[in-house]
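Supplementary Text 2. Reproducibility record for the structural model of the 536-residue chain.

All settings were left at their defaults, and a single model was retained for analysis rather than an ensemble. We include the record here because the model underlies the residue-level annotations in Supplementary Table 4.
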Amino acid sequence: MEECLGAPLTALQYERALANGPLKHDDRVKVVNRLRLEADMLRHALNMTVATINTLSPLPELPPEILAIIFSFAADIDPHRRVALGWVRVTHVCKSWRELALSITSLWNRELGNQSHRSFPTFLERAGENTPLHFNRETAAASGLAHDEQPYQALRDHSGRVASLKWVIGADSFTLVQILADCPFHALTHLDLNSDLHREARNITVILLLEDLHLPALRTLHQHNIFLPIRAPGLLTMTMTGSPFQPMNVRQALEKFPLVQNVSIRVTHIKPDQSEGGPPLELVHLKHLELAVRVGSGSIMHRFLCSLSVPDTACVTIRRLPLVDANDLSPIEEAFGMAADEDGELALAFTGKTMILYTIRRVDELQLPKVAVSFDKVASSTLVEVLRTGLVDQYLKRVTHLSLWPSPTYTSEDWATIFHHIHEVRTLTFTPHIPHQRASLRAVFEALGKVPGSQSQPELSPCPLPNLLSITLEHDVRPSKAIVSLQDDVLSCLQSRAEVGALQLQGIFFESYEEEAVVADRLRSLVKRVVWKHSR
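Retained model, structure tokens:
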């Protein structure tokens, strides 16, 4: 639009040039073309303005109920700003819109605490006397409002109406915690505390360990870099992130959440503690437990999980467990032990340099993960070194499902070593878990087709994955995302396997590949069923 408004000025310049004297033919052509271009730009701007007016013209005729929904949607998507919110402009359009917006208390009871010192009382007044209040001070520090005392006084005066509270705390941490301890927050269902001051967070934890915060209506709790002992008999979801934690403190906290269904702990590291043994804590309603640790010990995590009793239907996920060098394998053994359910099938997944071992629970026709252990940034040299020790073979030999989106750094020799330790695999699936990363499948098929008597790795079995029954290239594995030739890589691999007496594949599925006549003809003698992109 700015370009369009500025275009006539250029035309005036050309008019001045004409007034100064006659122009040459080429110059006149340039002027005419420029004027035509400017006219087109203005015509386009006018059409856009008319279209916008036509789009908005029905708004005044909409019933108040529809307008109220539009106003609420505008408030939901409007980003937080300092001093004012963009959606408030609807009160400036006309008298009827202003009256309607002022009558919708749910517009004014949200994001309390991010307003300026002058506008905060106005928002609080327009929220009404009986509407639940939602406080959010996430952007207060960045907006220069962190030291405004009005939100604290409002919390004290209206504690019984506060439904959700999101607060970034710093030097005011003691003030907020004191308010939570002294005032009755009987309606608080969501509490989200975020502190970047590790030192203060530790002090708060020590001070309040003697007396828990009682929040009877709390349903979701998120604590970042701070840990407050809270008693909430109706809590359903608990999340801890950022700061390190002691398993004993978390276990004691879970004792006060008898109905908890989802627990997520994503921290920098675990602090070892001297907690005494005892009967496992029963979490009879637990559906999902996630434990993500950047720097930690597998043995500590194992002891923490052993101190909990979870239902068979619960899903346990352990992420970011470091795969250390082969000189310290105890954490790895503990981690594999977590995933090795005696009754469940085991599956192994490689996504780039992330390796995940998980058990499978069958529910009707679905296969759902039950326990998953994830290792991040696994170097091929470290993994091969660990596998050659044989320490985890007792778990890997039970892996029956393998899914890959391989890292380009893994060579065919690396995959041959991996396949040697998971020789019970029946299904192999190539799944692009990293959508924007191109992967080379060539090394995988080269390893699958290695013939006996290899000079580089004579200790490996004659046929990698001898019990393999199916190979699937999922529908997202398009030729542009995978470096593989159906004729030179896939077909050569299957022919080599047939020569050493490997089991015939029951099926191979190219879900994103068009049928290649030459490959299809030669595959008929090697595979019982071949499925192409359009042959289902």
